[in-house]
TrEMBL record:
Keyword 4Fe-4S: no
Domain 4Fe-4S ferredoxin-type: 58-87
Keyword terms: Electron transport, Iron, Iron-sulfur, Metal-binding, Transport
InterPro entries assigned to the protein according to its UniProt record, in alphabetical order: 4Fe4S_Fe-S-bd, Fd_FixX
Protein name: Ferredoxin like protein
Length: 98
């Protein structure tokens, strides 16, 4: 029987292919609600793809091209913080392994 090598998480994620819908983010952060609820730090912590970051001006940055479409941010964000939908057809992540 052949041995199946799974590799590290980083190695497995490197097998993904991304079709980026340039200029059309499928994720928007309501900065006022995020600031009022403190949701920014939560989003930064939970996203496995490090999509969210703290900008120099204190707002929450969104690197939507890296999104794995896992839905974790939607599950934990307080109401009104996120507007999220799947990328347009044929856009976004295509999983090749795992
Ligand atoms: S759906 Fe998953 S990968 Fe995409 S931004 Fe939310 S937590 Fe990150």
């Amino acid at each position: 029987m052949a041995k199946y090598e799974t590799g590290t998480v980083v190695q497995r994620l490197a097998g993904n292919v991304y079709e980026v819908d340039e200029g059309n983010s499928h994720i928007e952060v309501n900065q006022e609600v995020a600031a009022a609820t403190g949701a920014g730090d939560l989003l930064i912590r939970v996203c496995p793809a490090h999509v969210y970051s703290r900008e120099a001006d204190g707002t929450i940055g969104v690197e939507y091209a890296a999104c794995l479409e896992c839905g974790t941010c939607l599950a934990v964000a307080p109401p009104g913080v996120l507007t999220w939908h799947y990328p347009a057809s044929s856009m976004g992540v295509a999983f090749r392994e795992g």
